[in-house]
Amino acid sequence: MNLIPLFVAIPLGVAFIIPMVSRKLKWAPDLLGNLTLACLTVMAFMTIGQTGIYHMGGWQTPLGIDLRLDGLTTLMLIAINVIGLAATIFSVQYMTRYTSKLRYYSLFLFMVAGMNGVVLTGDMFNLYVFLEIAAISSYALVAFGCEHEELEASFKYAILGSVASGFILIGVALIYGITGTLNMAQMAVKLSAAGPSKPLILAFALFICGFGLKSALVPFHAWLPDAHPSAPAPVSAMLSGVVIKALGIYVLVRLIFNVFGVTENFLMILRWLGLLSMVLGVFLAIGQWDMKRLFAYHSISQIGYIVIGFGLGTPLGIVGALFHMLNHSVFKSLLFLNAGAVEYATGTRDLKRLGGLNKSMPVTANTSLVASMSIAGIPPLNGFWSKLIIVLACAESGHYWLALAAVFVSLMTLASFLKVQKYAFFESAKSTLKKVGEVPILMRIAMLILAVLCVVMSFLVLTGLRTPFLIDAASRVLTTGVFNFP
């Protein structure tokens, strides 16, 4: 349990150290940033199978602040830190085109520390504090290019993010007023005893709006199509891969299943939000010609799949949602790194101005093909299995129309990514792109790591569709309660 606070302390400490040593040691930001994420990734895998509580400062509940470790926390820690490591490896050479690496890595580590804190904390107010650390860092990272497009997108993201934070803080205040505690385990007990009330319903509505904005669910998605394309590629990978999940979906689901208690009305709201996001996201994506903007709209659509799985409320639905959340972290992060590599090499991400990159950029092209087929649900890649589980869960629970919608959206996703492959990689090369070459080695390594994971993660279902490795322990947290261990 002594490892738990280090997930927050290490990135926060290194984020402050980097500016101190980087004035004279120009290589320090790259080295320290990558070493930190490598260390955090190893620690995340070390938590597999572990559960327990760390009392900050030795203060016992309810006087102190708890950090709690369980199967769901482990799953999120692995996703956050593995994607973070791939992004920092990619950043070493990619970020040379930007202004200040030391500021970039400091902000990046603040964002990682905030997300790690969100998934570990057992205290509502500290959850809000960690959420703001991650969110404010991400606002700055979106604007890191300092061009008009980046600044406008960051401003919109910051305004809507601040509105979301306001909703969440008011919701926390209401829950504190009802229960008299900020500890989530105690909240769960007191809310269960008190039963439903109007202030509780208002708090839930505020959380839906706040965390719906953080996760870019329709109709709270307006900031995402601007923020994700405008950010540097590694930041886009983090935003789509883990930020919208750790700060949005994870917290909302944790509150519904482990604090408020599951009701049919709560689940119905999730199902409708998921359906709207899934369908509208894919239709908005199809007409896009900017690679990163197209990928951003698909983030909205794929989040819809995840929320539908949770909205079913069945063990199989929860397994599918968690598995797809993990899979989406990998293949969507890879797609944004692919887009960054294409822009790095060609100077554009407009599909109409691209072509022939499968010959001049074979690593980028092949890893992009793997990610595209994975997000479209083509077997045997990881995206196929998680989508299959969600479709089966919809049919098993009697929501056949949701199963049909999920299959239809998957076909539309395939059509959208076939367009990307055709125009960017397999069409005849434009005359302006004849001399384009592959991106530097570390950028290729980062993409290859994620592409290999898209294949390897399909083997998680070897233990069974209902009990995939790592996913089963995380799903039991939601179906049986996170606060049941000593």
Explain what you see.
This protein is mainly alpha-helical and 486 residues long. It has a domain at 263-486. 73% of the residues lie in helices and 2% in strands. The protein is built from 19 helices and 2 strands. A two-stranded antiparallel ribbon has the order 1-2. Helix 2 (28-46) packs parallel to helix 4 (101-120), helix 4 runs antiparallel to helix 5 (124-142) and helix 11 packs parallel to helix 17 (400-426). The mean pLDDT is 90.
Keywords:
486 residues, 19 helices, 73% helix, 2 strands
Summarize it:
The chain has 19 helices and 2 strands. It is mostly helical. It starts with 5 loop residues before the first helix and ends in a 6-residue tail after the last helix.
N-to-C series of helices and strands:
HHEEHHHHHHHHHHHHHHHHH
Count of helix runs: 19
- The low-confidence runs, each spanning 5 or more residues with pLDDT under 50, are none
Reported for the largest beta sheet, the result is: 2 strands, antiparallel
Distance between the termini: 13 Å
Task: Determine the mean pLDDT.
Answer: 90
Work out the number of β strands.
Answer: 2
Write the layout of secondary structure elements.
Elements: H1 6-21, H2 28-46, E1 52-55, E2 66-69, H3 71-94, H4 101-120, H5 124-142, H6 148-179, H7 184-194, H8 198-215, H9 224-230, H10 233-260, H11 264-286, H12 291-312, H13 315-346, H14 357-360, H15 362-375, H16 382-396, H17 400-426, H18 441-456, H19 471-480
Antiparallel strand pairs: 1-2
Helix pairs in contact: 1-2, 1-4, 2-3, 2-4, 3-4, 3-10, 3-13, 3-18, 3-19, 4-5, 4-10, 5-6, 5-10, 6-7, 6-8, 6-9, 7-10, 8-10, 9-10, 9-12, 10-12, 10-13, 11-12, 11-17, 12-13, 12-16, 12-17, 13-15, 13-16, 13-18, 13-19, 15-17, 15-18, 16-17
